[in-house]
Design goal:
With 141 residues, the protein is mainly α. It has a single domain, classed as Arc Repressor Mutant, subunit A (Orthogonal Bundle). Strands 1-2 form a two-stranded antiparallel sheet. Helix 1 packs across helix 5, helix 2 crosses helix 3 and helix 2 packs across helix 4. The longest helix has 25 residues. The mean pLDDT is 92.
């Protein structure tokens, strides 16, 4: 085994945890976790979606998305309605409060990402993302 590859894997895991904690600290004053933000963001992008689709988009299992949805419902950031076309289906959408919260969160996330990626060019970020996607593809094959 190439020790550099092992070290790269270890460093990637460490940096991932640090990035998560950094974002968590930035979002804490808004009473939102990164996981809740991921679900809210997916709801905003898809508009009127289902929990199954949210689980796929956020790459989280259904029970996790269900727990996050319970919290977001209690915070009155999202609402559930029965689908008029298929009454077995529940549609999830943002409330007015949820829309406003996303606007505030987006500003915090943008600032956090700017700070996190300070010193990197757009090209370097794109190359890094491309590399991560290739590694992910290799793992999934």
């Amino acid at each position: 085994m190439n020790t550099n590859n092992y070290f790269l894997s270890f460093r990637t895991a460490v940096v991932s945890k640090k990035m998560h904690l950094f974002v968590m600290r930035q979002l804490a004053p808004l009473d939102i976790t990164p996981e809740q933000w991921a679900v809210l963001s997916a709801i905003k992008e898809t508009e009127n979606t289902s929990q199954r689709i949210l689980a796929e988009l956020t790459e989280k299992d259904r029970p996790t998305v269900n727990r996050i949805m319970d919290v977001l419902l209690r915070k009155e950031l999202v609402k559930k309605c029965v689908d008029e076309k298929d009454r077995r289906k529940t549609i999830i959408s943002l409330t007015e409060l949820g829309i406003k919260k996303i606007e505030a969160i987006s500003l915090v996330i943008k600032k956090a990402l700017t700070e996190m990626f300070k010193g990197l060019t757009e090209s370097e970020i794109e190359h890094f993302l491309s590399t991560l996607q290739l590694i992910e593809k290799n793992i999934e094959e």
